[in-house]
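Quarterly update from the structural biology core.
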Amino acid sequence: MDFSKPVSFFLPAKPKIQLIDEGNTKSRRRNRNSTRESHPKASEQPPHTKFAVIPSRAITDPRINTRKPLLLLLSAIGIHASVHGICYPSQRRLAMLCGKSNSWANKYLHELISIGYVRRLVSPIYRGKRSAIRLQVMWSTTQPLPEKETAWEKAPWCWQ
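Predicted structure, tokenized:
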């Protein structure tokens, strides 16, 4: 092999990135200068309910009522909760509702779980990394698990 001769090669053309608009079947080019605010992953829509349901014991509990961030986050979770207390909000959505960062929401969510006001639920079988986070607002300390759910501490695949 002769290393004194130059070798020519060609790079492939730069791919065109397009964003598909769900409302329109036509494609449009993606703006390279777009920011996260223009295409957020969390919905910027206001909450669909006009109220938040939180446990009444949170108002009288000094572990919660003396710490405003915990009460604020519990209220944001209560906006999404169903009659059984089950909801599927993302940490980004909770942080956006509270006007804080994602790490703030993560920190205080873990505190609410450790105090016992929120329970994290997982399905009994593994559904992939990107499955939704399921939370349950605990109306009482002895509230049973809903059907087809298991506590995340008891799911064997969570610890592998």
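Strands lie at 18-20, 27-29, 86-87, 118-122, 134-137, 150-151.
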